[in-house]
Amino acid sequence: MRGRTTGVQALTSIAIRAVSRSFATVDGTLPVLDRVSFEVPERSVVALIGPNGCGKSTLLRIVAGLLRPAAGQVELDGAAVTGPDPRIGFVFQEPRLLPWRDSAGNIAYPLELAGWSRARRDDQVRDLLGLVGLREFAGARPHELSGGMRQRVSIARALAMGPSVLLLDEPFSALDALTRERFNAELLHLWERTETTILLVTHSISEAIFLADRVVVLSPRPGRVVADLPVGIDRASREANVDTLALGQTATLIRRHLAGATDDPTPAELTAELHRRQRERPVRIEDLGEPAWFDPFGPESGT
């Protein structure tokens, strides 16, 4: 995958050093982040989890150079981030596509802004549409696509400039549980092929454990790092035991630091659901169908 489709960016590490941020309000200032520090080594996946309002999305925007920290700094390979950087791709919670452009046009937009020639843009867009399984929908506008297909276009657009860092702000939060599991599995396949460094925000403990090498837990606002936990499970075992990830030791530690501030069900609810599934039959990733890149139910025809 590295090459024409993803550019020739070198591998990149992220260092977040004592970052603080507050926002002005009618009553004064609202502190959102307080001296947040952690690192994301090159080509690793780190999940950021914490209660609502603790500054997770704000931190992602600071890493992307879209917001300036009040104190501290973010570094890419040792150089301070002072503004948007072409090495960084950002996928938001909502696709945020331009409604008057088709899929190919949305993916091509950052390439146009960067001054790429028409021929070079066309080659890159064709490759990216193939990567996310949407070549047949190159001419479809956002209102003609399903929610999952729109998010695929958003991911392809984030990859257009060949970033070495991918920031994900709960991109699959609006999807149903079954589709979300498939998208998470395919996101890992994408990561393996593109050699990106990934920092993602999630509210789901099981999603964090499934995707990440480490899970960084933030406190309630103002967000502070209260835990930085390695996921001591190899990726093959995670895929084979996806239903039990929220019941393991790592999940227990995360839940303890979150003090219940998560979208996941309680351990008792998880155990009951696991027993119900086991009575029916064990469910594994491979039971959900053959991988078809962001398409768990076969070819989509839009909505």
Low-confidence stretches: 1-8, 285-303
Main β-sheet description: 6 strands, mixed
The structure class reads alpha/beta
What percentage of the residues does DSSP assign to strands (E)?
A: 15-25%
Mean pLDDT: 80
Terminal CA distance: 30 Å
- Helix share bin: 25-40%
Total DSSP helices = 9
Topology record:
Layout: E1 14-25, E2 28-40, E3 45-49, H1 56-63, E4 71-76, E5 79-80, E6 88-91, H2 103-113, H3 118-131, H4 147-158, E7 165-169, H5 177-194, E8 197-202, H6 205-211, E9 214-218, E10 225-230, H7 235-240, H8 249-258, H9 267-280
Parallel strand pairs: 3-8, 3-9, 6-7, 7-8
Antiparallel strand pairs: 1-2, 1-4, 4-5, 9-10
Task: Name some characteristics of this structure.
disordered N terminus, 6-stranded mixed sheet, single chain, alpha/beta
Description:
The protein has helices spanning 56-63, 103-113, 118-131, 147-158, 177-194, 205-211, 235-240, 249-258, 267-280; strands at residues 14-25, 28-40, 45-49, 71-76, 79-80, 88-91, 165-169, 197-202, 214-218, 225-230. It has 303 residues and is α/β, with parallel strands linked by helices. The strands form two sheets. Strands 6-7-8-3-9-10 form a six-stranded mixed β-sheet, sandwiched between helices. A four-stranded antiparallel β-sheet has the order 2-1-4-5. A hairpin with a 2-residue loop joins strand 4 and strand 5 (79-80). Helix 2 (103-113) crosses helix 3. The model is unreliable at 1-8 and 285-303 (pLDDT under 50).
